[in-house]
Amino acid sequence: MAPDTRHPDKLDRAVIFLGPPGAGKGTQAMELAKKYGVPHLSTGDMLREHVSKGTPLGAKAKPIMERGELVPDSLVLQMVAERIERQDCSHGFVFDGFPRTVVQAKYLGELLKHHGYKRPFVIHLVIDPSVLMRRLTGRRTCKVGGEIYNIYERPPKAEGICDKDGGELMQRPDDREEVIGPRLHAYEKQTAPLAAYYRRLGLLHDIDAAKSVDEVGRQVLQSVQSVRGAK
Length: 231
Ligand SMILES: [Zn+2]
Prior knowledge:
The chain is of the alpha/beta class. It is built from eight helices and eight strands; from the N terminus they run βαβαααβαβαβββαβα.
């Protein structure tokens, strides 16, 4: 019998998403967390929350973020360690944007073990660079309501105009081909060792991310359910 994807059982571990910008990592991570009713832990959101609440960690991170620099590992790891100790994480959680490096991954592995969690489940969203390029360069955002379209995959009814509020659609400077090429290259360079690390540990699960958001979501869920309960 196919697993019931409407009412998945409890998640019993950490799920990690790896995938290039534009592969749908954030969307899939959020959806999976919602399906299981566990926290979706985006390190970017967590940092911004610390800053806005003025916590000691936020006070340290704020000037670094304002300079546009990367917050050092020590702060990110401290923040993650503190977060996963909270009660709402006891049945597992989904990471979005963490870990980014092998050093972070090793630390996370120790941390999870220390807290009695099973080994993490790592989802690797795999997508052909040319498909990704189309997806990213085709992206248009509404200037009024922020709705997102794609001129190739999900075009608005009228060219350049938002279906919902008639707002003008624009392309973010970040989504131009000359910016995306180097971005994808930088991602590949940073993530290839991380993916290799998790693959060696037998924790990496490849998912074809060129399919629709819903189809990818189904595959992610099926993949996670296939190991649930296992060590
Ligand atoms: Zn709009």
